[in-house]
Structure formats: structure tokens, C-alpha cells
Amino acid sequence: MKFPQPVLKVLLLAGVVLAVVSWSSRPVAPKPHKVRLARLVIDPTQLAHYKVLLREGVETAMQKEPGVLALYAVFEKKRPNHLTILEMYADEAAYQAHMGVVKQIGENRRLRESLYWLNSYN
User: Fold this and answer.
1) Are 84 and 39 contacting, i.e. CB atoms less than 8 angstroms apart?
2) Alpha-carbon distances of 62 from 12, 35, 65, 66, 108, rounded to whole Å
3) What 8-state DSSP symbol labels residue 91?
């Protein structure tokens, strides 16, 4: 089967356009996120107060700090003053910005006194 020259040019051009469109629409690999795991032990006498501060802090961070993707706090069933916090940030800059806020909050004497132990994994 023989095609006229203009039809071949159109088919060739259409093939090139399709190749470019399909190449440019490939999913881009997501940027790596910053993930942090923190384990804390809270003074049992300060636990109720700490839970209030934690809830307020998580809500504020999720609403007002760009780049904070997730903050999950899980308390152990058998040791209710032990908790693990999973933190996910868009990037290192978002993590550093959040740590600046946490440092300011950590200057609260009552909060500082409620923490017995902190261990974090980056």
C-alpha cells in the first residue's frame, strides 16, 4: 500500500507528537520525604497535661506549618506514659522549620519537666 507524501508527513508528525506527549506525561518520581520517629516517656503525673499540649501542637503544625505531612502519636497500652511519634515532612527544610517551633515550645518549663526521656530516629 502506497501513501501520498503529505499523508506520510502527517503520520510521522503525529507519531513524534504522541511520543513527546507520552514522554512528558510520565509520572515524576516523588521527592524524598524526611521521616522521623521519636520515642518519649512522660512523667505520669503530667500525662493529662502533656496530652493536651500534644493535641494542640499536632493540630497547629498540620494547619499552619507548610511541609508537615503527618504527625501520629501512639501511646502504649501497657505503659500509657510511653509514646512513639511518627513525623513526616516534605523535605529537610520543613523538618528544620518544625524543629524551630518545637524548640520554642520546649522552653515551656512545665512541658520540659514532664519529659523523662526522648529518643529519636531520623
Assistant:
1) yes
2) 51, 15, 6, 8, 21
3) S
Task: Flag whether the pTM goes above 0.85.
Answer: no
Cross-strand partners of 84: 39, 74
Give the count of alpha carbons within 13 A of 98, CB side only. Answer: 27
Scanning the structure block, which residue is given the C-alpha cell 500500500?
A: 1
Packing angle of the helix pair 47-64, 92-106 (nearest 10 deg)? 140
Phi, psi of 28 (to 5 degrees): -90, 140
β-sheet bridge partners, residue 16: none
Among the four given CATH numbers 3.30.420.40, 3.90.480.10, 3.90.180.10, 3.30.70.100, the one describing domain 34-121: 3.30.70.100
Q: Which of 71, 96, 97, 95 is nearest to 85 (CA)?
A: 71
Q: What percent of the chain has pLDDT over 70?
A: 59
